[in-house]
């Protein structure tokens, strides 16, 4: 399901995907990566250069936020473990899965 474009998922499949992510993705890394993949697909489907730049700029700004998992963030900086801001809370379409507090 994660490889399928979101526009190809019917309502039942979409609900199942997010339900599975809530159960098996406690820190929302997979859900976030899925949303990043979908926005990157939006970029490649955009034929208007100005709109494409806007989509790419938004994606880049989003991916370097402190709340993003280290796998998504730029490799320029340290891991931002322990951030209190949810990366999913500010991006349309992201599930309401909230990362669990670290026990380490």
Question: How would you describe the overall organization of this protein?
Answer:
This protein is an all-alpha fold. The chain has 3 helices and no strands. Helix 2 (29-45) runs antiparallel to helix 3 (49-63). Mean pLDDT is 76; it is low at 75-91 and 93-102.
Summarize this entry quickly.
44% of the residues lie in helices and 0% in strands. It has 3 helices and no strands.
- Largest sheet: number of strands, sense, barrel closure: none
Gyration radius, to the nearest Å? 14 Å
- The H-and-E topology, N to C, reads as HHH
Mean pLDDT: 76
Number of helices: 3
**Percent of sequence in beta strands:** under 5%
Unreliable runs: 75-91, 93-102
What coarse outline follows from CA principal-axis ratios? flat
Distance between the termini: 32 Å
Given helix and strand content, the structural type is: mainly alpha
Helical content, roughly?
A: 40-55%
Count the strands? 0
How would you describe this structure in keywords?
disordered C terminus; mainly alpha; 104 residues; 3 helices
Give the SSE map.
Layout: H1 11-24, H2 29-45, H3 49-63
Helix pairs in contact: 2-3
